[in-house]
Design brief:
The chain is an alpha+beta fold. It has two domains: about 190 residues, Lysozyme (Orthogonal Bundle), CATH 1.10.530.10; about 140 residues, Distorted Sandwich (Glucose Permease (Domain IIA)), CATH 2.70.70.10. Helix content is about 30%, strand content about 20%. The chain is built from nine helices and 15 strands. A hairpin with a 2-residue loop joins strand 14 and strand 15. Helix 2 packs across helix 3, helix 3 packs across helix 8 and helix 5 crosses helix 6. The longest helix is centred in the middle third of the chain and has 24 residues. The N terminus and C terminus are likely disordered.
Length: about 375
């Protein structure tokens, strides 16, 4: 059964803008260098860089202030001042991460500001004129909104991706598509949400783009580090969402009792009487609380980063919802009441654990709590 959490866009009035990133040195697609190039080019590049720096600044700085680029790459030759902008852009929704955005930019342009596949595409994120009019803003406050302004481009790509993530989230919540949200978002970027909807999953013609971008994720993991909290899975112990944990249908492949379709049962069903209290399994923030077609009244709680990976729990088929999206909750906070809304044969709680964007068996997470 497919279902989903909603992607929440944070309100306006963001915190003070991070330092404006410095344009990286051009990074052309590499071809095999000859021996003369290996020996001569480093020296020429060093001399040129030093000469250019002295001309522009009038000398060497006495010290680097926080936020200034040290000249050392943060990841694969990308200036470290991109990090705050990547994190700020990714903070607009739960699906997109800094490494997600960085990998996209790498695939689109190789971080070259003139890297475009057509004459109408500009900047590191290869925005067309029409796309820029829709997504572009003067995010770094320098008085100009331009796809060739690296900070503006990163923020605009984050807005575009989060919008796509919201659309595929709704599609998966409604049962119109299936698959990992990251994959569906990248596919929507590559071929459009209509193509994703028609295929009901990642379309075949989006697979190449998907493979190329995801292959670059690990190259930029360094940018994700400041965005995570938590101390590993040992601290990710979940409290029981209902008083008794009587499992009526476990996690795993099964034939749905109403639709007759055999597919992954993405959580566990706990048998409980109508109206029984359903509580938050861990501290977090409610990111979705509304009616859905398949899972009826549904609540999704984002628990933040655990061991560098995002943890979420979901609570479905509720007879009543007692929280609202955006609300902060603690372990044991009432979320709603057991019910049988949506595609359900009787009162129960369908409980899911989503770890690093994928459904996982909730029982081990709850079993850890049993000995405490």
């Amino acid at each position: 059964m497919n279902d989903e959490h909603a992607v929440e866009t944070r309100p306006a009035d963001p915190p003070p803008a991070p330092p404006r990133p410095q344009p990286p040195a051009p990074r052309p697609r590499r071809r095999g260098p000859g021996p003369v190039t290996l020996l001569v080019m480093p020296a020429l590049l060093t001399v040129s860089a030093v000469a250019g720096f002295l001309i522009l600044t009038g000398g060497f700085p006495s010290a680097l202030t926080p936020g200034d680029s040290s000249g050392q790459p943060a990841a694969d030759g990308v200036d470290e001042t991109y990090g705050p902008w990547l994190r700020k852009a990714a903070d607009a929704c739960t699906v997109v991460t800094p490494s997600f955005l960085a990998a996209q930019i790498d695939q689109l342009s190789g971080w070259r500001n003139d890297g475009a596949t057509t004459s109408d595409e500009q900047g590191i994120a290869a925005f067309t004129g029409a796309e820029w009019r829709k997504w572009g803003k003067d995010d770094d406050g320098n008085g100009t909104s331009s796809p060739r302004d690296q900070a503006d481009a990163i923020m605009a790509l984050g807005r575009q991706d989060c919008s796509l993530a919201g659309k595929v989230t709704d599609l998966r919540t409604d049962g119109a598509v299936s698959g990992d949200l990251v994959d569906l978002t990248l596919a929507a970027y590559a071929v459009g949400t209509d193509a994703v909807t028609e295929a009901g999953r990642v379309p075949a013609d989006a697979q190449t783009y998907l493979t190329e971008v995801k292959a670059l994720f690990t190259r930029y993991e360094e940018f994700d580090r400041e965005d995570f909290s938590g101390g590993g899975q040992a601290n990710a112990i979940l409290a029981p969402p209902v008083t008794t944990l009587t499992i009526t249908s476990p996690y795993g492949s099964r034939k749905h009792p109403l639709t007759g379709v055999t597919k992954l049962h993405t959580g566990v069903d706990f048998g409980a009487p109508q109206g029984a209290q359903v509580s938050a399994a861990r501290d977090g923030r409610v990111v979705f609380a509304a009616m859905t077609k398949a899972y009826g009244n549904r609540v999704v709680v984002d628990h933040g980063g655990i061991d560098g990976k995002r943890l979420e729990t979901t609570y479905s088929h509720l007879s009543a919802i007692e929280v609202t999206a955006g609300q902060t909750v603690t372990t044991g906070t009432p979320l709603g009441r057991v019910g049988s809304t949506g595609l359900s044969t009787g009162p129960h709680l369908h409980f899911e654990v989503i770890y690093d964007g994928s459904y996982t068996d909730p029982q081990p997470w709850l079993a850890l709590n049993g000995g405490r």
